[in-house]
Amino acid sequence: MKKTIYIFCVLFFLGIVSNYYAFSQSQMYATIYLKDITLVQPNQLEFDLRLMRNSDKWLYWANGSFEVGFDSLDYKITPQNLSIEVIQGTSDLDISPITGQIPKDNYLLTPRIFDGRISITVAGPENYTNAVQVGWDTIGVRIARFRLLSKDGSFLPRKMKWLQPYYYYQACAFKLANDSLIIPSVVIHYTDNNLEMDNELIPRVDYRVESNYDSTEIINFQAIYIGQKHVKLLWETRSESIVKGWIVARA
Amino acid sequence: MFSPDSNMKRQILNIILLIFLPVIGLNAQGISFDNTGGKIINNGTFRVRAGQVKSLPDTIGGRVEFIAICNAFTQLIPNITYNQLQISGISLKVIDSLPGTNTRPLTTQDSLLIRDNARVQMFKESVFAKGTVENTVDVEGNKEVRMVGNNTQNMFGNGKYPILNIDNPQNVNVIKNGGFTVKNKLELTRGVLNNNTGNNFSMADSSVIVRHSEGSLAEEPLFDKNVDLEYVGTSEIFSGKEVPTDTTIVKDLWVENVGGLTLTKNVTVKNKIVVSTKINTEPDSLNKYILTLTSNIDPVYTSAEAEIEGSLRRTYLKFDSTVILFNNRYTYALFANESTANGAKELTFRVKPRTFPPFLNGNAKVKRYITISAKDSNYNPVQFGLSLVVGYGWRNSTDAQKDENNGLTINLLKLQRWTGADWYDQQNDAPPQVDVVNEWGFNSSVNISALGDFAIGMPGNTLKLVLMSKVILEGPFRYGSMSFDLKQKNLLPSTPPDIYPYNLDPRRPTYVVPNFPDSIVDWIVLEFRNKVTGSKSKYITCFVKSDGRVCGRDGSYPINLFYEGVDSGDYYVAVRHRNHLSVITENPVHIYPDAISQKEIDFSRPELLLGRENALRIMGLNSDGSLLFGMIAGDINGDGIIDDKDLVSTWEDRDYENEYRTTDVSMSGFFNTRDFNFVWNNKGRKTFVP
């Protein structure tokens, strides 16, 4: 009997969690990933910025502002020690050169470094017909792959993060393909308006950093005295990247 | 005078004359009759057909007729006392003194008959008539025919008098259909001139009626185009039938009698009012009349005491910053220009001296009150929306009978308007002044925007001139309220920056807010206009709070307009913000210190705004399902239109953080595509504020 009750409770709990998860997912319009973060060199890091649609509320992506940083207290981002560039040919967007300061028919990527943050601002086309359609799938749209370069030769952290609070640091808007009515016959938003997906109260964009599988992460380290003044060192890694060997220093 | 001692020859001659003259005509062109040194006892008719009389006694009885008929002949009519005097015949008859005799009026004891086609001139001597006067000719001259009988006299005939003076306490009756005309002046010295509609007379054009305290008219005479009225004497006069019913007749009004003139009907003067004493337009509490002056000539008050007590209406207003004088030397209105009159075409000042205002705490005021009213060209009242200067005065005298100061501290006194509930101090007035010599206190009050009842009293009223208003800015609006990130992040400048629209407010540099009140979203500017276009604006730089309320720089809500230098009035009110399209009310807002005006102006209600729904942006739905509107975000450069310039500016400023810049449309302190999208979505929108 006890076992039956226990199983029931577990199932009930799991049901709540799964429903909540499904509910929260249904509120989401999009997910934006920092993906495939790769420390190509100790002073060079690459990552994808990818957009995925989670809702039928929108189809055309308008623009966005994305502010990211390193998940490290030791590394201070400044324009003097870090640069960023778009890796050529990596964007699913039409980022061909524009005339003027803001694009009319295509997209403009402007990655920049500021004190404490890496900014990627994307301006989009004026009309939805020129905007990228984002599929409701697991692929989505790769905004671009970016390369971070240390200017002073220092090693770059491998972990990245989205700056928070999201509402202030991040922005992501879709483009309307039709007028939007608030009540019958009353238009609140017009075709080609850019509508922010989230707001301060209800986040509708899921900002994610896909696990840094390509980083080197030690998950276990042991030192065992085996006699004769010898110590046996054992360590275990979850992942290893650009590792040629190990140097163990005594502290 | 007959005397037994007189010359026997003269006695004999007189007897002969008594017997024969009634039937004898004097026909000589030269001196026809010389009575030098003689005496005439005449019980018959002494008829002077031609020639002159050289000498006559001071008094002659019977009937004397001057009847010369030669057109070229001038016959002198001596200024003696006649019993009966008839003047007729076409020869010119000149009333004058005989050579060597005294100047004095010609007097008739029984009757004066001026008849037929006589030509009579009275340039030398007046005629005093003690009996009946018949006149059927046009008497020339500048001397008067004065009715001075001891008994009731009669007048008739269709002749004309240059000056007619009624000076008979026993009255003078107009009989036999009247019909005479007074050409220059009718003087009502004593007694009543008893005319009536069947027995009336006429006042010629541009004549004058001078009425003394003891004289009057029984009925309104027939007036021509103009008549002047003058009141003289030693006591109060109540206006009577000398005042034409036709309001276009009275040209000048002179009031010089001690005790002044009290009106018993409305009087309209079309040229000039001269007051030496006073005019009272309200004979009692039930009857209140109005004295109207239709010319642009200010009333003349020839003494410091002179005043019009009651209502003076002026229908010719000047809009050139010159004084329009009203009830006394110190009471006036002044319009800087026509727009400050808000359509008013006439003004009426009702001044009640020596009377406490009949409202709350009235007896704590100066013992005088003023009621000001105005009408437009359609005679509709204009009470609000004006901006005039009002001068006012009150008696500040050591004579307790005159003094109205009520023991109040003069230099603190203010003009106060009765709002219907309490007194409201007119603002921004300089301290009063005192005319020590004439014993008046006086001052002027600028920017009188509402008319009505005014008192002069000590300041300290509890009424405030406030503005309750609410506005929603699209940029910072997030689900039911506006964010106040700028305040939370300490990004709000303590002094509004020198950018649009804050630099519209000339007092901007003086504003320093060391500690911001709670929930402040941003600085905004309220603009007050008397007209939608063409009027000088007043600005208040203040705050908008997260719930939309517009508050003062100290966080006070509602805003106290008095402290902001805005007087009451009817204003078009605009709201200006550094990156939103301005809005303005479609109609003037009634801003006055009374309960009626304590309504909130909700600038998120499109029906109140010029441009209606097009002036705002739909933000969502209210809880009752109605549409929620807000001011349109994205006018970065403040030029009233959202265009590519605003877009480019916003794009260029992307990535700023924690700064106070106009490109932060969301007012979050962060600059990114969220701000850009506000501008983009509103591109092409324009302000409706002219």
Give a description of the structure:
The complex is a heterodimer of chains A (251) and B (690). Chain A is mostly beta strands and 251 residues long. Chain A has two helices and 16 strands. Chain A has helices at residues 2-27, 166-169; strands at 30-41, 44-53, 60-70, 82-86, 108-114, 117-123, 132-133, 141-150, 160-162, 171-175, 180-183, 186-189, 194-196, 205-209, 217-227, 230-239. In chain A, strands 3, 5, 6, 7, 9, 10 and 13 form a seven-stranded antiparallel β-sheet that branches. A five-stranded mixed β-sheet of chain A has the order 4-8-2-1-14, with no helix packed on it. Chain A has a two-stranded antiparallel sheet with strand order 11-12. In chain A, a hairpin with a 2-residue loop joins strand 11 (180-183) and strand 12. Chain A is elongated. By secondary structure, chain B is mainly beta. In chain B, the strands form ten sheets. In chain B, strands 22, 24, 25, 27, 28, 30, 33, 34, 36, 37 and 40 form an eleven-stranded mixed β-sheet that branches. Chain B has an eight-stranded parallel beta barrel with strand order 8-10-13-15-17-16-14-11. In chain B, strands 45, 46, 47, 49, 50 and 51 form a six-stranded antiparallel β-sheet that branches. Chain B starts with 7 loop residues before the first helix and ends in a 9-residue tail after the last helix. Residues 1-29 of chain B have low confidence and may be disordered. Classes of the chains: A mainly beta (251), B mainly beta (690). The A-B interface holds A 62-65, 101-102, 110, 112, 114, 117, 119, 121-123, 167-169, 171, 173, 182-183, 186-190, 193-196, 199-202 and B 478-479, 483, 485, 618, 620-621, 625, 627, 647-648, 651-652, 654-655, 657, 668-670, 672-674, 676-677, 680-681.
